[in-house]
Amino acid sequence: MKTYREHEIVIVGGGTGGIMVAAQLLRRNRDLDIAIIEPSDKHYYQPAWTLVGAGAFDMDETIRPMVDCIPARVTWIRDKVAAFRPEENELETVKEVVFTYRYLVVAPGIQINWGAVKGLPEAINSKGVCSVYEPHMAPYTWKVLSSVKEGKVLFTQPNTPVKCGGAPQKIMYLADEALRRLGVRKNLEFHFFSPGSVVFGVEAFAKTLRRVIKEKDIQVHFAHNLVEIKGEDGIAVFDVTGKDGKVTRKDVAYSMIHVVPPMSAPDFIKNSPLAIPDGALKGWLDVDHHSMQHTRYPNVFSLGDVAGVPTAKTGSAIRKQAPVVTDNILKLRKAAELDEEPEALNTSYNGYSSCPLVTGYGKMVLAEFDYNNEPDPTFPFDQSEERYDMYVLKKFGLPWMYWNLMLKGKA
Fold first, then answer.
1. Is the pTM of this model over 0.85?
2. Which of 11, 66, 171, 355 is catalytic?
């Protein structure tokens, strides 16, 4: 039997975006009635998993209880969304609870599709097949990395959007340095496989990465998309797209392979009326690229990895999107209280995102850019250069900022 509940603001997702918006809303109005729908009892600082996979960060430091992260004045609903009915301003959960709302924020993150690569679910986290894209897998990555002695070490990137687009390369650069320190790098070939045609989309930073790749003697293979893992045989199978558009298959043997799995919007978003119906961003949540407001349902907003905006899916992007969503919801709410037509939502997101590109232990390039793939720097120096202080920011400063400022609605 269905039950019915009502909250003024319902937020789907207790990740970075959902919690930041809730915290920022409450800092501006403590009396708001907000509920967060989130099934997980743990909250993760995911940007550190690359460092965990390289043996440079403690996995336990990336995990906190969800109850300690969700603002105290927010109602936490431990459930999952089953269906959206935006025409009726309601949604239904798996537990058959129907929630009515005045404003909806959708921020459930991204879906990792391990099964999209044949053999990967059976092979992952065993026999040299690793990834830093799940919390229980990152420590195994370091176990494999610190024990490989010879052969080919492969790193892949899928033909889909991914969270933290720099992560496929960051773990590769750290692995190279780790194996040099262990004295076995000379016995290993490093290979990077990408379905794309460039190492990074912003040329100002790509030129530095090309130099790093050359210095580290990494062989790069563009137009290669991983389609199968033969775990028992130690073989990775790639679709290779030729200049004529024809696709051929290639088998590559490995001693170790770090896989970045294909990703997509969650199924319950893709199959909902909130999704983009067609085009390059089909399936992602349909929002205006600047106001983060849904293009068809004005009381619905989105941010984070699920949002159908053409920029990198990172926590830094969320940090810039959250104030936009917060401000625009409050503008709509004020107009409704005054029984006025809402003004144009001119609080705007410019597509800012950041990829902290760790190129070794103690070295990092801080790539910051906007919708136009133009640099959007924070600091008054050349951020395309490798710097030690940026690595310190990555390892120590950003985690502290995340737990103590971002999730508290202060940054």
1. yes
2. 355
Q: What is the C-alpha to C-alpha distance for residues 6 and 26, in angstroms, rounded to an integer? A: 18
**Is 130 considered catalytic here?**
no
For the chain, count helices (H), then strands (E).
11, 21
Is 164 an annotated catalytic residue?
yes
The CATH number assigned to the domain with range 3-110+265-344 reads 3.50.50.60
Contact in structure between 47 and 398 (CB atoms under 8 Å): yes
* 275 DSSP assignment: B
> pLDDT tens across 158-208, in order?
999 999 888 899 999 999 999 999 999 999 999 999 999 999 999 999 999
| pLDDT, tens digit, 9 for 90 and up, residues 61-79 | 999 999 999 999 999 999 9
Alpha-carbon gap, residue 204 to 100, rounded angstroms: 47
Give the CATH number of domain 112-262; options: 3.50.50.60, 1.20.140.10, 3.40.640.10, 3.30.390.30.
3.50.50.60
Location of each CATH 3.50.50.60 domain in the chain: 3-110+265-344, 112-262
